[in-house]
Specification:
Layout: H1 29-37, E1 48-54, E2 60-66, H2 74-85, E3 93-96, H3 104-107, H4 110-116, E4 121-124, H5 143-157, E5 163-167, H6 169-185, H7 192-198, E6 204-208, H8 217-226, H9 228-239, H10 247-254, H11 261-266, H12 268-279
Parallel strand pairs: 3-4, 3-5, 5-6
Antiparallel strand pairs: 1-2, 2-4
Amino acid sequence: MAAAPLTLPTQCLPPLSFRPPRKKTTIPLLAFATACRARAPYPLKEGQSRLFHRLPSGLNMEVIFQKGLSSSSAAAAAAAAEEAEKGCRPPPLVFVHGSFHAAWCWAEHWLPFFSRAGFDCYALSLLGQGESDVPTGAVAGTLQTHTSDIADFIRKEVSMPPILIGHSFGGLIVQSYISKMMDQFSSSQTSSDERNACHPLLAGAVLVCSVPPSGNSGLVWRYLMFKPIAAIKVTLSLAAKAFANSLPLCRETFFSSTMEDQLVLSHPTYNLHLQGTARNKHKEHLIILPSLYSLRGAKKGHVSFET
């Protein structure tokens, strides 16, 4: 006896919808190079200014500055003035960006937010990034030279101990700064003037998704074990800089994977990411810094700035 064909009532079947696959967009290398040559500085927001700090090397480092705002109420303004006279005003904030970024990455949201809270804000562009000068030679700097550049800026341009904030590779620079600062201030043979001459004392430090003191190797291996496909994408995008030639990869790396192509292309930071690749000549390999483990309190997740 032949088996009867199986039929399902049509009202039980869910409606079918077909979504066409997203077309992969590739950025032609010629167009990419042309865009980088025709780059324009990041358009500043209201209340922001672009400054240039001259380093001992003679090169200029870009600084985007936004002054802290006082409250509009008379009582709050009077209280702020009284605190300023007593030396209790909020410490300045100094922001250090990560790989393929520059001072502009802080200018859109971070600087306005903290400025409204009363903090003077300085966002720096490392040499070879943003509108900072590009040194001659194979690399624009090392971890040590970037740290020294930031110390020079703080020493000459910031009137009181700031809070140093670093994201990703910038967080590694902040840790290097703290390590050198602690070495200076822990030396009993160094006077207070000599201590501030190199790496001035900080009021605090903040690490935002920072590269750890041991480098990225442990993170990379964990990522490969638990999310191999995502790990391969990140490696291709950042280590091999493939995002510079692939709009989908650039979108997924720096924006949202669901963000439409035109929104990415029209976003002011899109070309700045590409410019960061073109100008990125400094060594940002996996840097092992075992000396940073000597920071007081580092194993407990905090660092003491007491001297």
